[in-house]
Write a structure and sequence with these properties.
The chain is 43% helix and 15% strand. The chain has 10 helices and 10 strands. It has helices at 5-25, 42-58, 73-85, 104-110, 122-129, 138-149, 169-178, 193-197, 243-249, 260-281, and strands at residues 32-38, 61-67, 91-94, 158-162, 182-186, 202-205, 223-226, 230-231, 237-238, 252-253. Strands 5-4-6-7-10 form a 5-stranded parallel sheet, sandwiched between helices. Strand 8 and strand 9 (237-238) form a beta hairpin. It binds NADPH dihydro-nicotinamide-adenine-dinucleotide phosphate (NDP). NADPH dihydro-nicotinamide-adenine-dinucleotide phosphate (NDP) binds at residues 139, 162-165, 167-169, 186-190, 193, 206-209, 227-230, 260-261, 264.
Length: 283
């Protein structure tokens, strides 16, 4: 089974669009997402463009604040402070990576946790750890929704996550744990990686290495969620998995492109509407 992230994300965006239309009909204001982009990183430009496009499609208002590469940390902090105080702004997203002279951790911590739609602020990280309501980082959240969509319950299953980043590996491991999976987190220091991944009922690959995983890494009938976004030797977009080979052995697998990637934006939109409702009604 191919887990079609494009289709699932489209469904989510259409549902959100209906909700925004209802707000419009009730003459209420629509949510506003503020996106801060520093410098001219090519990938970041594409990500921001896609986020704005998704906002436009759904009917969420967006505001992009662009700064040149030489923007200072203090300047950026004062922009965020303004957005924090702006009652019309529901969600704030600072596109990463930032230029090397800016401390990303300081910037993330300066965002009001109630507007932190990326779910990176330590308050939201703690809430995820405690399984309390906060903002769940978009990519891991998207993966959980995908499993839900195919009717797969990870409860009691062996889930192996390869990669331990703060934005993917760690949060998805916690989400799986909260769903009662038995979770193993592997990383670059892991020995006998293949023996571990072969045990997985669900394998999540988030290492950022083109076609690193082949058929031999999984057992028959596993579910594979490939987070990696890489270029292969021909410059074509590909995941961490050798998709063709693994698809023959897996029960279900996400392609790249068209898998986990589109879900990230759909969940960002979901978080923005959530931020709006929480701020509007104090829930
Ligand atoms: P990071 O570079 O932050 O983390 C990579 C992880 O992979 C690290 O934990 C690293 O281990 C581990 N790793 C590296 N090499 C190996 C190896 N040989 N064996 C086992 N583990 C290894 O990456 P991100 O989590 O930010 O992203 C991962 C991939 O997902 C990238 O391709 C990125 O582009 C993509 N991505 C896709 C998104 C989407 O929307 N689809 C969103 C976010 C990311 P260690 O910690 O020991 O260094």
């Amino acid at each position: 089974m191919i887990i079609n992230g494009k289709e699932i994300s489209q469904k989510i965006k259409d549902q959100l669009k209906i909700q925004i239309n209802e707000l419009k009909q009730q003459k209420k204001r629509v949510p506003l997402l503020a996106v801060v982009l520093v410098g001219h990183n090519q990938a970041s430009e594409v990500y921001v463009r896609n986020k704005v496009k998704a906002c436009e499609y759904i009917g969420i208002a967006s505001q992009v604040i662009r700064k040149e590469n030489n923007c200072t940390q203090d300047e950026l902090l004062s922009i965020i402070e303004k957005l924090n105080k702006d009652v019309h702004v529901d969600g704030i997203l600072v596109q990463l990576p930032l230029p090397a002279h800016i401390d990303e951790e300081i910037i993330i911590r300066s965002i009001n946790p109630d507007k932190d739609v990326d779910g990176f602020h330590p308050i939201n990280v703690a809430k995820l750890f405690l399984n309390e309501e906060g903002f769940i980082p978009c990519t891991p959240h998207g993966m959980m929704v995908m499993l839900d969509e195919i009717g797969y319950n990870p409860g009691g299953k062996e889930v192996v996550v390869v990669g331990r980043s703060n934005i993917v590996g760690k949060p998805v491991s916690l989400l799986m744990l909260h769903k009662n999976a038995t979770v193993t987190i592997a990383h670059s220091y892991t020995t006998h990686l293949k023996e571990i991944t072969q045990r997985a009922d669900v394998l999540i690959t988030a290492v950022g290495k083109a076609k690193f995983f082949d058929q031999s890494y999984i057992k028959e009938g596993a579910v594979v969620l490939d987070v990696g976004i890489n270029r292969d030797e021909n410059g074509k977009l590909c995941g961490d998995c050798d998709y063709q080979a693994m698809a023959e052995k897996a029960y279900a697998i996400t392609p790249v492109p068209g898998g986990v990637g589109p879900m990230t934006i759909a969940m960002l939109m979901t978080n923005t509407l959530l931020a709006y409702h929480r701020r509007s009604y104090g829930i």
